UniProtKB/TrEMBL annotation:
Transmembrane parts of this sequence: 12-37
The name this protein goes by in its record: UDP-glucuronate 4-epimerase
Enzymatic reactions: UDP-alpha-D-glucuronate = UDP-alpha-D-galacturonate
Enzyme class of the recorded protein, top EC level: isomerase
Subcellular location: Golgi apparatus, Golgi stack membrane
EC number(s) from the headed UniProt entry: 5.1.3.6
GO molecular function, one term: UDP-glucuronate 4-epimerase activity
Biological source species: Artemisia annua (Sweet wormwood)
């Protein structure tokens, strides 16, 4: 009897704890569901995101909301999406690469993606379509990429869940990392966006790459601005880069040091490219040559900077097609990463190259060329070079890139701007009426 009672007691006790456990499991599950549906989704720079297959982390979502301005709703995940991702990344030539291009709907990203796709590489784009400059231009570039067979995933490089998913779906041999917060002067208005994209975003991408198996080789966009207050010209990769003149420059310099760390610890193959004031069709509206064109056509005055004692301000303007050749050359000569799954197995390649034009042109000459091409006289407003990040002069020594992968720019500013103006007029239609 006692035995029986004990059994009943045990059974009852067991039954009641099971019921309690089930009850609390339901409560817990319900709480998770409430949290999921009530929380602001997205860890991309999009303000909201419809998730269909996996969730991004809350922390990155909050971070992106803090650092980015409003963006459109976007979605990722699901069987159709996965199919598009895989199809875009499929290699269509022998010994072709499989490349993830971040910032694919950006200026350089679009041109590089099209060039890679054209030669048969598998290319998958990633872009957060933020509104630093007109998102409609990024959408137009995206349409161009679609026509070339490149699918651009909408998402941010800080979105760990998304990056993980992409690396699960595709075994990337290379990453062309071009996503960044650009612009030297805007850094004074929105410093956090530089930290978010150029530092946190870069680290987030490197973390995924280091854990990938195989690890991809990474080529990424540094900047001529790392030379900062360096006065020795032309700028050589051996020159000092410890005096950045803007937060933008400082974040790019930080990127170079971060690259060193990931190369050293995890065996990631990393190549940084120091771009020198890249211009051309489909360019960035925040850059001087672009908004000078717009304002000259509108009859608006354009601010032309000059140094102390009327010193010339000049840039080593580099045409986009030359930059694309440099990017492909860097990808083609990038050695494999040596680690896998987060472990280093041996030393890996670590490089940095100047990609410039080697012939600086004064900004006032840039304006004269535009006047001739547009057949409109500019309203010049000469003013002192502001102390907000600008440097007076840039000039690239490109012998290292020449030696390593035959980099040889062939487009002078006059020729390049002619192509830009032709594109500008065709894109904006009757440009004098354009409100862009
Ligand atoms: O090589 C880089 O690493 C950087 O290149 C580019 O920076 P910058 O070389 O400063 O280009 P950009 O703003 O077009 O000014 C061009 C010239 O016009 C002068 N300038 C500018 C504005 C103005 O109102 N007046 C003027 O005279 C100005 O003083 C300068 O001399 C990219 O934007 C940057 O993201 C980064 O990639």
């Amino acid at each position: 009897m006692v035995h029986n009672n004990n059994n009943r007691f045990r059974f009852f006790f067991h039954y009641s704890s099971l019921a309690k456990l089930t009850f609390w499991s339901f409560v817990f599950l319900a709480l998770i569901l409430v949290f999921f549906f009530k929380s602001p989704s997205s860890s991309s720079s999009s303000s909201s995101r419809v998730m269909t297959s996996s969730r991004p982390s809350m922390t990155s979502s909050l971070a992106s909301d803090l650092y980015r301005r409003s963006l459109k709703t976007s979605s990722w995940g699901g069987p159709t999406w996965e199919k598009r991702v895989k199809s875009s990344a499929r290699i269509r030539t022998r010994n072709g690469f499989c490349v993830l291009v971040t910032g694919a709907s950006g200026f350089v990203g679009t041109h590089v993606s099209v060039a890679l796709k054209r030669r048969g590489d598998g290319v998958l784009g990633l872009d957060n379509f933020n509104d630093y400059y007109e998102p409609s231009l990024k959408r137009a570039r995206q349409a161009l990429l679609e026509r070339s067979g490149v699918y651009v995933v909408e998402g941010d490089i800080n979105d760990v869940a998304l990056l993980k998913k992409l690396f699960e779906l595709v075994s990337f041999s290379h990453v062309m990392h071009l996503a960044a917060q650009a612009g030297v002067r805007y850094a004074m208005q929105n410093p956090s966006s530089y930290i978010h994209s150029n530092i946190a975003g870069f680290v987030s991408l490197l973390e995924i790459c280091k854990n990938a198996n195989p690890q991809p080789a990474i080529v990424w966009a540094s900047s001529s601005s790392v030379y900062g207050l360096n006065t020795k010209v032309p700028f050589s990769e051996k020159d000092r880069t410890d005096q950045p003149a803007s937060l933008y420059a400082a974040t790019k310099k930080a990127g170079e040091e971060i690259a060193h760390t990931y190369n050293h610890i995890y065996g990631l193959s990393l190549t940084g490219l120091r771009f020198f004031t890249v211009y051309g069709p489909w360019g960035r509206p925040d850059m001087a040559y672009f908004f000078f064109t717009k304002d000259i056509l509108k009859g608006k005055p354009i601010p032309i900077f000059e140094g102390a004692n009327h010193g010339t301000v000049a840039r080593d303007f580099t045409y986009i097609d030359d930059i694309v050749k440099g990017c492909l050359g860097a990808l083609d000569t990038a050695e494999k990463s040596t680690g896998s799954g987060g472990k280093k197995r041996g030393p890996a390649q670590l490089r940095v190259f100047n990609l410039g034009n080697t012939s600086p042109v004064p900004v006032s000459d840039l304006v004269s060329i535009l006047e001739r091409l547009l057949k409109v006289k500019a309203k010049r407003m000469v003013m002192k070079l502001p102390r907000n990040g600008d440097v007076q002069f840039t000039h690239a020594n490109i012998s290292l890139a020449k030696r390593e992968f035959g980099y040889k720019p062939t487009t002078d500013l006059q020729t390049g701007l002619k192509k830009f103006v032709r594109w500008y007029v065709s894109y904006y239609g009757s440009s004098k009426k354009s409100d862009q």
